[in-house]
Amino acid sequence: MTRASVSVARCTPRVFLRGRRSMTSPRSTARARIARRVLAHGNRARGNRVDAVIDPDDVDGVPYEAPSKQPSDDLRGTGVVLPPITWASDAWRWGSAIGDAHDAAAVVRAALNASEDARKRWLVSMISTSPLPEQNYVPWEECKLVLALSWQLSGHRGAHACANGAGSWLDVMENLRRGYYEENNSVGGDVVLARDMGERLSEAGRGLIVDARRAASEATNGDEVWTHDAVRRATAAAVLLELEFLEVGI
Question: Where is this region: Disordered (predicted)?
């Protein structure tokens, strides 16, 4: 367990709550609950039991109240500009020293490898993103690139074995590289990607997905688009935490 892991659930929820100033709907409250569960999972994955039990309506002893101001600058992505077509494009060229993927990766690495705080802020922004255009802090394609870079680094570190013994994260990266998750387009391909990631997570990680699905479904009366988006983002967050994204970067 590292010092960084001890601080995750204590520091980042406050950043998240500051960023939700204009959110008063049940959907936004559900995102806050999912974020807290994700961050608690980050502690559990590293053996820190201090925040292992979190009331979904309470952080650090303070009940969650949807504030009234505009979202702060705490919620933002890396600023990378991605081409309209990524993994299904011949110009993407994942793994090459030239191409769209190389150029995009340079921007993302520069932003997220700057500090652990930058990675914490990005992770919370990614979870806080919703289908609403004004809440598109971290586009899903940016999230997929960060996942791929994390998987790539796990290979270099020899840490690519999945927590539950179900193969290697490099298998998912290879499927992504060859455009397998782009074939069904939009929600369809992402459902398969989320499934493939979820099957490789630890029991705690899979529990997080169940929590995210329940919270989003209850808050939106079963809206499929919102629930799917919450599930895929919670799944991605669980993967990144299990690969020590906060500690080692991408």
Answer: 56-77
What pLDDT is recorded for position 98?
A: 96
Instruction: Report if residue 127 sits inside a domain.
Output: yes
Cα–Cα distance measured from residue 134 to residue 3, given in angstroms and rounded to the nearest whole number? 35
pLDDT for the residue 164: 86
Spell out the SS3 assignment of 60-89. Answer: CCEECCCCCCCCCCCCCCCCCCCCCCCCCC
Q: Which domain holds residue 89?
A: 80-248
What's the whole-number mean pLDDT along residues 114-130? Answer: 94
- Backbone torsions φ then ψ of 200, nearest 5 degrees: -100, -5
Please provide residue 148's backbone torsions phi and psi, each rounded to the nearest 5 degrees.
-60, -40
Is the pLDDT confidence value at 65 over 50? no
Q: Quick check: is 14 in a domain?
A: no
Q: How far apart are CA 202 and CA 207, in angstroms?
A: 9
Report yes or no: 88 and 179 within 8 Å, Cβ to Cβ. yes
**pLDDT at residue 143 greater than cutoff 90:** yes
d(CA 65, CA 116): 27
Q: Which amino acid is at 7?
A: S
Q: Long-range contacts for 152-157 (Cβ within 8 Å, ≥24 apart)?
A: 152/250, 153/243, 153/248, 153/249, 153/250, 154/243, 157/248
Determine, yes or no, domain membership for 217. yes
Closest Cα to residue 11, out of 117, 93, 107? 117
Tally of domains in the chain:
1
pTM for the predicted model, two decimal places: 0.78
Which two three-digit tokens encode residue 190? 């992402």
Asked if the model's pLDDT at residue 59 lies above 90, the reply is no
Place of tokens 């802090």: 137
